[in-house]
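hey m, so remember when u said the C-alpha cells were messed up on ur end? i reran from scratch. heres the input so u can diff it against urs
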Amino acid sequence: MITIGICEDSVPVQSQIENYICEILNECPVEVFSSGEDLLSFLSDGKQRFSLYFMDIALPGISGIETASAIRGKDPCALIIYITDYREYVYQIFETLPYRFITKPIEKEVFQKALTDAINYMTDRGELFCFHVDRDQYQIPFQEIMYFESRLRKLMLHTAGETYSFYGKLNPIEKDLNPLLFVRSHASYLVNMEYIRSIRDTEILLQSGEHIPMSRKYRPLVRQKHLEYIKWRSLQ
C-alpha cells in the first residue's frame, strides 16, 4: 500500500496538497507534519514509514533538506518530492536523491502529474525489496527472499545463496510485503510461501531443508494463508 507523508508548515498549502492527493488516491493514508522534527519523531520508533514524501524546504527548525537526508539514511527507497518557492536550493537537494522538484505556487496539473508518475514508478518497482547496509544499497527481488529473521535489533534476510544483515524491525516490513506471498509464522520470522515444503505442528519445513519455528499464536494464520496461497497459485 502506498503511504504519503507531507512536511509543510503552511496550513493552506497542506490542505491544497491533501486535496490534490485525494482526487487521485481516495483511500491512501496521508499524514501531515508542520516541521522536520515532528516528522522524524514520528518515524523514530521504526513502526511507520512512508512510500512517498512531499517535502517543503524552508521549514521551522531543521530544513527540509536535512529532514530528507535523515530519511534517506534509514530508507533508501522512499520517494521524495520537494515543494518550495526557493529555487536557489535546487542544486543542494540532489544529494538527497529526490524524485522530483515542484515550485510554488503549486499548479494542480504539475502536482498531479508528479504524483501519478510516482505511483507508476512505485508500482513498477514493487517487485523489489530495498534496504541498505552501511553505505551500500541493495534491491532484492521478492521471489528470491526465502524468509526474514529478527535477531535483537537486526534483521536477517535469507536468500538461497546469501544472508544479509541490517538494522530494522519486522512489523513495518510485514506491512510492505505482498500478503499473498509472505506469512508471519513467529514473532521473529516472516516466510515466503513460495519456499514452503510442508507445515508441521510447531515448524515450517522449507524446500532448502531449513526448519522455521511456528508459534501456537500464528499456526492458524499460517495454515489459512498457505491454503489461500495454493488457491491463488493455481489460478496463475
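this time it looks ok to me. The longest helix spans residues 108-124. if urs says something different then somethings off w ur setup not the seq
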